Every structure is written in C-alpha cells, then in structure tokens.
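Sample log: Universal stress protein family protein.
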Amino acid sequence: MRLQLLVPLLTHPDPTPDSVVAGAVAVARHLGADLVSHAVDIDIHLPPSAFGGLFLDVPKMIADAEATSRAAGDRLQAALADAAEAAGVALIREEVALRPEAVASGVARRARLADLAILGWGLSTVEGREVAEGLIFEAGRPVLFLPSVAAVGALGCVAVAWDGSRAAARALADARPFLEQADEVVVVTVADDKPGATVETGSALVRHLAAAGVAARLDVAAAGEMPIGELLQVRALALGAGLLVMGGYGHSRLREFVLGGATRGVVDDMRLPVLLSH
C-alpha cells in the first residue's frame, strides 16, 4: 500500500511558504509516496445586518480577503502540481472552504486519513501556530515540518531524539518509512535531561533497530545550559542529519495547547526538517 502524504496549503492570513512545494515533492519521491494537496480557502460569512450599515466597506473587505485566499490557494496548487509532475510523483488535488476559526480543526480532521502531514513552517501568525498545534495533538498522525529557512536536502542521515518516553516511541514508529530508507540513523540521547534518558536506554534502542535491519549508532549529549530544543537541532545538524525525529510533548489547558519545553523550542526556532509525533 502506497503512503499518502497530506500537504495543507494555508491561504490566510499568510499563505504557506513557497518552499513547501519543492520540499514536499522531494519527500514524496524519497519515500515513493503520493501527495495530497489540500488547499484551505477562507469563508468569512457574516449576517447582512452584522454591522448595521455603519461600515459600508466591510462586505468589500470580506470579498477581497476571500478572493486573495482563493488566488493564493490556486497558485500553490498549480506550483505543487507542476513540481510533482516533473518529479513523477502522483498528486491528488483537494480544495475546501472553511471559516477562519475552523481551519485548525478542519485540517487536523483531514490529516487523520493520511499517513503523514507535511506542513511548510515559516508562519509567525496565531492562525499558523493553531494549525501546527492542531496537527500535532489532534490529528493522531505524524507531522513533518519543513522550515522555510532550510531546504529539504539529502535524507540519508536521520537523527532520532530518544528519551525512552511514550512520545519518543510513537515518533520512532511513525518515522519507520524514513528510517528504512536512511543510510545512517543516529540515536541522540541527552543523558542528563530526564530519568529515562540514559546511555542504557539509548543503547537498547540501537540494538532494537539493528535487529529490525536498521543500522544505527548512539550519540550522547550533555544538556548543559543550552535549551533542549536547541541542543537537539544543533546535534542533528552537526551529525549531518537531514531530518530530526522527536516526540511532540504538551497538553491541552483551557482549550489551548501548551507545548512542552523541547517541543516549543524546536517549533519556535526550527533549523531543519523535523518529524513530530504525539
């Protein structure tokens, strides 16, 4: 069964970065997977009397915003279709119109029917972060973030952040297609970060991967004063990894997502492609 990779194309207020086009196609080609481009247009519906005629330009402002959203979606869809065709990657095109407040939940629901969601990351807006957090914690599927500051390069080396936790184990399982295609897998353990993050647990994972036919080695880092999210990325880049795999930590409080320290550190300053799984 071929993998299906969902690419949400956000259009409002900031569109998905153009860099996601080449990145998503490169990942799909690497995995031998199909792409699903999912353009999300905004639908701003207000009752005719909502403003009581006080703001006569509001209907035009809404129409302009919706038109801009559709145009951005069409442009991204066309660019992704052209790149996929050139690379020989199968593409399924989808388009949906959602109320702005329903975008995050709508994208998360759609991602449940995919094997992996690929999100172009460079969005500093509240809306963009809501979509990202919704995918991590509500979709039930892994999310591959492609930062606009770093193009997708060779995926021959994959770094796996390992602390022996449930979230790390889930991410490891979800990253299996990448691990099976990798030339080298490096297990990165920050030994003095958590009780479960020890040389022994890291070595056990290396042995487990070897038994499954995946060659891996252990890299032990010391936390020191550097934030864990930064340290993991620094180590991954120093090792030559093109992808960092890690568990997504956090919880919901008062209907808002609260990210764990390492997860927030990575999301706030992403330096290479990162696969997050909760």
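Observation: DSSP finds nine helices and twelve strands in the chain.
Observation: The first strand starts at residue 4 and ends at 10.
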